[in-house]
Amino acid sequence: MKKDHKLLYYINKWSHLTEKDETAILAAFEPARVKKKKDLLVSGEICDYLYFITQGCLRSFYTDEKGVEHIYQIRMNNNWISDLESFFSQQPSKYNIEAIEDSHLLRISHERFEQLLIEIPQLERYFRILFQKAYINALSRLNATMWETAMDRYSEMLKEHPEVFKRVPLVYIASYLGITPESLSRIRRQK
């Protein structure tokens, strides 16, 4: 593998790439940077890119009619972020994607992504597994908000992703958990 490249490392976890495949993948992704508090995507725009976070932290969220933000994703190093609905349909996004920290990314355009899947069948396998896992995680999160207590959701997040609490403002964590910042403060005091 090319110099222990993180993107290739994660792709090779679920598929087996040749050296030629790895070279083509690295050529298809372009580096991007986004500063803290800057937008990668604004609601109403088409999401033209799929992003792999090499370093940093981002969030995707929508703002309701009352102006309240609802966080859908919090992603950090070695994770993907995008609005897949907009990316695949090429329709305007309902979400914003904003950097929580200065972030370094690798991005691939929709057109190049589709070409790469044809060129490298193993990559299609990787993304099928990735998207299946993302779908299952989204359903699990939806089920948790319906059937688990806020304390249970907080405890699970703390257990599964403790680094989030070191890097993400608590107001964003509260929104992600579907609770108020005040409720999160009470829960944290009880732990």
Describe the structure.
- By secondary structure, the protein is α+β, with helices and mostly antiparallel strands.
- The protein has a domain of 119 residues: Jelly Rolls, CATH 2.60.120.10.
- The protein contains 9 helices and 8 strands.
- The strands form 2 sheets. The protein has a 4-stranded antiparallel sheet with strand order 1-8-3-6. It has a 4-stranded antiparallel sheet with strand order 2-7-4-5.
- Strand 4 and strand 5 form a beta hairpin.
- The longest helix is centred in the C-terminal third of the chain and has 27 residues.
- It is globular.
- It starts with 5 loop residues before the first helix and ends with a helix.
Order of helices and strands: HHEEEEEEHEEHHHHHH
CATH homologous superfamily label of the domain at 2-120: Jelly Rolls
- What is the fold-level CATH name, i.e. the topology of the domain at 2-120? Jelly Rolls
CATH class descriptor name of the domain at 2-120:
Mainly Beta
Give the helix proportion (percent range).
Answer: 40-55%
Rough outline:
globular
Q: Any guess at the CATH architecture of the domain at 2-120?
A: Sandwich
| Distinct helical segment count | 9
Mean pLDDT: 93
Structural class: alpha+beta
Strand content: 15-25%
CA gyration radius, whole angstroms = 18 Å
Terminal CA distance: 43 Å
If strands are numbered along the chain, what order do they take across the biggest sheet?
1-8-3-6
Query: Which stretches of 5+ consecutive residues score pLDDT under 50?
Result: none
Domain Cyclic nucleotide-binding: 13-134
Pfam families: cNMP_binding
Protein name: Cyclic nucleotide-binding domain-containing protein
InterPro entries: cNMP-bd_dom, cNMP-bd_dom_sf, RmlC-like_jellyroll
